């Protein structure tokens, strides 16, 4: 799938799983899911997919930063949680995340960056920095993997194992992408409405 489908499905899945009951509780969900929904696609090789993914990753990084800033203005817990797992652990988290994402960006598409190994490492390093964002990050990341497994191209879920998995139901950039994007939008709007009216 392309970026919009990954964004809407990832954000909707994170809101549904976490069920925040207020705006302050929703901000870590927005931050984590914004990062998790597209981080897999740092390795895009196809020019069309690379452009689409790059553009939307910038948008989602801005959304994550805006949610982080709003959390700070509301005296939420995201920035206060930095360092709560250890005084210098957050520095190790940043270093680990930079190294992991660098390796992901130079790996083959749907290889390391689309694996459970990447999910585990990136979640661990994010927990060292912003522990409140890890659950929505992981949920959005997993939703990305699930959508991509439905496509025609193989996904190396168990990297470094060579074998990839696919269901082969859809092409990533055709009708299914539009359908999943629309369904994800409806799901996301519904999930946000139900969460914030609690």
The structure class reads mainly alpha
How many strands, what sense, and barrel or not for the largest sheet?
none
Tertiary shape: globular
Tally the structural domains: 1
The whole-number mean of residue pLDDT values reads 90
Task: Give the CA-CA distance, first to last residue.
Answer: 32 Å
Could you tell me the number of beta strands?
A: 0
Return the string of H and E elements. HHHHHHH
Radius of gyration: 16 Å
Number of alpha- plus pi-helical segments: 7
Strand content: under 5%
Share of residues in helices: 55-70%
List the uncertain runs: none
Give an overview in words.
By secondary structure, the protein is mainly alpha-helical. The protein has one domain (3-196). Helices cover 64% and strands 0% of the residues. The protein is built from 7 helices and no strands. α5 packs antiparallel against α6. The longest helix has 27 residues, at 47-73. The protein is globular and about 45 Å long. The model has no long low-confidence stretch (mean pLDDT 90).
Summed up:
The protein is an all-alpha fold and 198 residues long.
Question: What characteristics describe this protein?
Answer:
single chain; 198 residues; mainly alpha; globular
Per-chain topology:
Blueprint: H1 3-18, H2 23-36, H3 47-73, H4 89-106, H5 116-129, H6 134-149, H7 175-196
